[in-house]
Amino acid sequence: MARLQTVSSWFEDVGDGIKSLAPERLPYGRLGLALALGLIGGALFQWLGLPLPWMLGPMTACTLGALVQLPIAAPSVVRQPMSAIIGVLLGASFGPSVLANVGTWISTILGLIVFMACCGASSIWYLQKYGGLDAKTAYFAGMPGGLVEMITLGEARGADAKAIALIHGARILMVIMTLPFIIQWMAGVTLVRAPGSVPGGAPSIFTSPAVSEFLLLGCALSGTLLGHVLRLPAQNLLGPMLVSGAVHLTGLSDFKPTYEVVNAAQLVIGTTVGCRFAGVAPGVILAQMRLSFGATAILLVWTGLFAIVMSRLTSFNVMTVMLAYSPGGLAEMSLIAVALNAEVAFVATHHLIRVVLVMVLAAPVFGLLRRLGFAKA
Predict the structure, then answer these.
(1) What is the mean pLDDT of the chain?
(2) 315: how many CB neighbours lie within 10 A of its CB?
(3) Measuring CA to CA, how many Å separate 61 from each of 80, 173, 174, 280, 376?
(4) Kind plus residue range of the DSSP H or E element containing 285
């Protein structure tokens, strides 16, 4: 504990020395500094040949910036247009051939439900026993998905909303930061190429650059509107994904976002994830990281076990199932699938199901557990 406090004090001292140099009071200064850090982190990861450099690099740089208390920030409104681009990219993986294979996903979807129950139960147990959290907070913090929804539901039931937010944020960060390295090591592949080369369908008349850019913008805008009208989870990502998926499923076009557009989207998403800890005391960040490290290890063990079992029961390989089951962010895990040239539609669909199930079932299951004596206080 003393060592943790010493490290925390060091981060505070470094932050005090740097903060005076940052354009804190200028308009958009915090965002500008965050994006600058992201660019540096992405370039460094690219130079080092590390996986997903333009997402993991900004994420790492901005997390370190939060630790030293730099005045950085990335409002959610900044992520929204980039999420729409990623949604269009993911929808581009839903070619006509997907319809012929979707029936083979039933067994892995059923396995996903069992996987979620195992992850949720073990995370709640760990957070109560080793994190010292009360039952309500541990329950909503231990759910494998739905960051915003779990904060809202937990707060309404008397849980510690700040702890839920920090633990979910740390979970997403650590899963995203560790899984690409695990996959790169296990599969012997390099996840540094641009994820803009999504396998498309047959060539169509709508393949010129001008038309492709028009379709990209059209899918992003109309999909975002659709997501809000239908009140979808992750509206700005799932709406464009559905519209883009419809365009590609019908064979109308096989367009996809360009290398530069996808890298820019990764930069913004990585920056926003890293900025989730901005403004939080270094000691709190380090404590949550330490707690989340154990929870993430548990989740990754379950992910690996289920991936091995399901790969032997189905035709899908271990890496694809691991990406589909891993409890990280939908956009981030799908981007890893794109970089690995895995079945992106399969991965994205399983993550969507996971998020929806957590949102729909978390509150009813909590009510049932309370009637059975859990978290009555």
Answers:
(1) 80
(2) 10
(3) 21, 12, 14, 16, 42
(4) helix 282-313
Q: Which two tokens stand for residue 327?
A: 């409890």
Cα distance between residue 167 and residue 206, in whole Å: 45
| pLDDT digit string, tens, across residues 82-124 | 888 888 888 887 777 777 778 889 999 999 999 999 999 999 9
Task: Look up residue 328 and give its DSSP letter.
Answer: S
d(CA 81, CA 93): 19
The span from the CA of 342 to the CA of 123, in Å, is 28
Task: Report residue 245 as tokens.
Answer: 């998926």
Confidence of residue 290 (pLDDT cuts 50, 70, 90): confident
Q: What is the largest CA-CA distance in the chain?
A: 66
* Gap between the Cα atoms of 336 and 357, Å rounded: 22
Count CA within 13 A, CB hemisphere, residue 319: 21
* pTM reported for the whole predicted model: 0.77
Residue for token pair 């592949």: 189
Q: How many CA atoms lie within 13 A of 213 on its CB side?
A: 5
d(CA 302, CA 180): 16
CB 82 within 8 A of CB 271: no
Number of residues assigned to the chain? 377
CA atoms 63, 65, 66, 72: torsion sign: negative
Task: For residue 239, give both structure tokens.
Answer: 């709406």
Q: What tokens were used for 246?
A: 């419809």
Burial of 196 (0-12, 13-18, 19+ CB in 10 A): middle
Q: Are 182 and 300 in contact (CB under 8 A)?
A: yes
Residue with tokens 């899908």: 316
CA 74 to chain centre: 16
CA 192 to chain centre: 18
> What span, in angstroms and rounded, lies between the C-alpha atoms of 79 and 33?
16
Residue 63 structure tokens: 């997390």
| HSE of 86, CA atoms in CB hemisphere, 13 A | 32
Contacts of 10 (CB under 8 A, 6+ apart): none
pLDDT tens-digit readout, 346-358? 988 898 888 888 8
Mean pLDDT of 147-168: 84
Q: Measured at the alpha carbon of residue 187, what is the angle toward residues 183 and 190, in degrees to the nearest 5?
A: 75
